[in-house]
Amino acid sequence: MTYHASVRLALLVLAVILVLSFSGAPLIGEWSIDVGTLFFLAAFAVVVLGLERRYFKSMRKLTADIATLHADHDDTVRQLEGIVYLYATLQPQLPLPPFNKATIKPDFAERLVGELISREAPVVLELGSGISTAIAGLTLKKVGAGQILSYDHEDKYAGLTNRLLAQHKVQDVARVTHAPLKARRVGDKDWDWYDIDVSSLPMIDVLLVDGPPRWVHELARYPALPLLWDKLKPGAMIYLDDGKREDEREIARRWEVEYPSLERVPFPSRSGVIAFRKT
Ligand SMILES: C[S@@+](CC[C@H](N)C(=O)[O-])C[C@H]1O[C@@H](n2cnc3c(N)ncnc32)[C@H](O)[C@@H]1O
Known about the structure:
The protein is of the alpha/beta class.
């Protein structure tokens, strides 16, 4: 008998005793129950009920913790698979920098590499440079066609990523330009967004939206689509990173409403990337 069932049975017996006592009926033969014993049994029942509640509360928490551990484990395995895929496919001459909270996740990097391999001489436009720029550069170098144009609002990170691209000898296909944030008009509002001359950009096959950071202001990445929409080829893919955050979810919702030809592409991942195709 389970703990739960035993507690229920004990409570049932107590209830029967209580009812019989109040009715004045003898319980077993001539044996009946006095008031003191009755109160003791009632107090005992209250204690047992309290213990039962605490027990089941901690069991529920334990079950939830175990489920989280399983999900964490599965995700760790998935990310390791992503890293193995990257090294096996790209075979970089130097180790890649470590993935961290600021970077894209390995499973997304894997998806990106597959996407670029499947396209003919793709043009990638990236907002927010880093390891993602190097991975795209290595892929394009490997397939021998295409380019990635990356923009970073921070001079320091533009410089660091350009150095990374040089170390991996992919500067001919990948380049980061420092583009400080400046007021850009979108709709009836000014947004701090990259100082990019959009009219001079080539048509884009893949757009990676991983900046500006959210501390700039609310919905900081929203202007990417309104400002670059006309530069996206039909069939272009748009990846919005950090889609687990409410800010990015709201951006995705707005884009979907404002661009009916935008189709959400499923990408089941704990990294939270939100993927769209311009149809
Ligand atoms: C989300 S990060 C971009 C990450 C990039 N796409 C990658 O996968 O590595 C957005 C901005 O943070 C800055 N940044 C880059 N690497 C960083 C780091 N390791 N720590 C903090 N900020 C970083 C850069 O200015 C970048 O444009």
